[in-house]
């Protein structure tokens, strides 16, 4: 088990110390449940009451919250970011795979870098290139002509179709499918004619793709996921989408085809963005929002109605349907009222 003294952690975080700098920390926990040898954090003042009763050996805390607290602490401007960094230092997550399992199927043309691990029943296809320290979990498939950058991890049962490039230090969770066909069809007198999806997928560095998320390949050109993007579980990225760097998309959200999402955007869960649109850099879309037009200016955008009593919701739904009629009536009344000169 990894462990660090408070002094060592403070040096890594660039924080100041209050209390005993020799205390050893081996794990992290919440203020409410922490015990000896654990580090907690206060990032929201509404949990201040828990700070007074916590059994944590030390806490991460901001300068504005340290007043009145006499316990062991590492003081830094953003305790939550500090918590994330300490969590990485103390991470006990096992590897997705270790060594080359005898049941793995690796095509003779595949090229494997140093310290590559391929788990049981995984399949590595023709002309695949796996960079140094790549881990391919049990049952995963990496298709023909794929490239996986160094340090990238595929957990169990990930499917990577042909001509997909993943950058360095990516994490792909179980059940994710990257490079499946997009929704491309022409209709001839009621008959659907499939359009072969001949583009690929290009994923940048430090991208994390959640469990059961799907990223479709491009119809002609590539679908692009840029550096630092986070896709939560069960997200749908359609063909030829471009997701800008460091954007985060929460679970159950859908981005329709040929849409460009800007850099540093946050899209809340269960949201939907229609196809052939663009969303400005730095945009924040609230959960369950339907985006049906171009967003040219950064800001916070919302569209979902709040939960309410079903009877009230039904009445409001009827009134919503009457809005246009009401608007026309108001407009007519306005014309009938004399205006002052």
From TrEMBL:
Belongs to the transferase hexapeptide repeat family. LpxD subfamily. It is an enzyme of class 2 (transferase). The gene is lpxD. Residues 23-89 form the UDP-3-O-[3-hydroxymyristoyl] glucosamine N-acyltransferase non-repeat region domain. Pathway: Bacterial outer membrane biogenesis; LPS lipid A biosynthesis. The active site is at residue 239. Homotrimer. Pfam families: Hexapep, LpxD. The keyword Acyltransferase applies. Catalyzes the N-acylation of UDP-3-O-acylglucosamine using 3-hydroxyacyl-ACP as the acyl donor. Is involved in the biosynthesis of lipid A, a phosphorylated glycolipid that anchors the lipopolysaccharide to the outer membrane of the cell. This is UDP-3-O-acylglucosamine N-acyltransferase. One of its GO terms (cellular component) is membrane. It catalyses: a UDP-3-O-[(3R)-3-hydroxyacyl]-alpha-D-glucosamine + a (3R)-hydroxyacyl-[ACP] = a UDP-2-N,3-O-bis[(3R)-3-hydroxyacyl]-alpha-D-glucosamine + holo-[ACP] + H(+). Keywords: Acyltransferase, Lipid A biosynthesis, Lipid biosynthesis, Lipid metabolism, Repeat, Transferase. Transmembrane segments: none annotated.
């Amino acid at each position: 088990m990894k462990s660090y003294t408070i002094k060592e952690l403070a040096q890594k975080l660039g924080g100041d110390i209050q209390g005993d700098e020799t205390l050893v920390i081996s794990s992290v926990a919440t203020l409410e449940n922490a015990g000896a040898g654990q580090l907690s954090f206060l990032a929201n003042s509404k949990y201040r009451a828990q700070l007074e009763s916590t059994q944590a050996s030390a806490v991460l805390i901001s300068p504005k919250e340290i007043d009145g607290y006499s316990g062991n602490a590492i003081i830094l401007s953003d305790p939550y970011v500090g918590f994330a960094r300490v969590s990485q230092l103390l991470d006990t997550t096992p590897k997705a795979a270790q060594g080359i399992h005898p049941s793995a199927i690796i095509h003779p043309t595949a090229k494997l870098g140093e310290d590559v691990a391929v788990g049981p029943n995984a399949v590595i296809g023709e002309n695949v290139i796996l960079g140094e320290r790549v881990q391919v979990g049990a049952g995963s498939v990496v298709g023909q002509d794929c490239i996986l950058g160094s340090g990238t991890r595929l957990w169990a049962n990930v499917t990577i179709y042909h001509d997909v490039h993943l950058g360095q230090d990516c994490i792909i969770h179980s059940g994710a499918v990257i490079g499946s066909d997009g929704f491309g069809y022409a209709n001839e007198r009621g008959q659907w004619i499939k359009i072969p999806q001949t583009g690929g997928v290009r994923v940048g560095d430090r991208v994390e793709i959640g469990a059961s998320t799907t990223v479709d390949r491009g119809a002609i050109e590539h679908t692009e996921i840029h550096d630092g993007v986070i896709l939560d579980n069960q997200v749908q990225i359609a063909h030829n989408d471009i997701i800008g760097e460091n954007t985060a998309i929460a679970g159950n959200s859908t981005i329709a085809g040929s849409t460009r999402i800007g850099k540093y955007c946050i899209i809340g869960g269960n949201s939907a963005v229609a196809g052939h649109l663009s969303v400005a850099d730095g945009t924040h879309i609230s959960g369950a929002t339907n985006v049906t037009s171009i967003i040219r200016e950064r800001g916070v955008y919302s569209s979902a109605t709040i939960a309410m009593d079903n009877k009230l919701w039904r009445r409001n739904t009827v009134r919503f349907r009457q809005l246009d009629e009401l608007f026309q009536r108001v407009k007519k009344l306005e014309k009938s009222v004399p205006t002052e000169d």
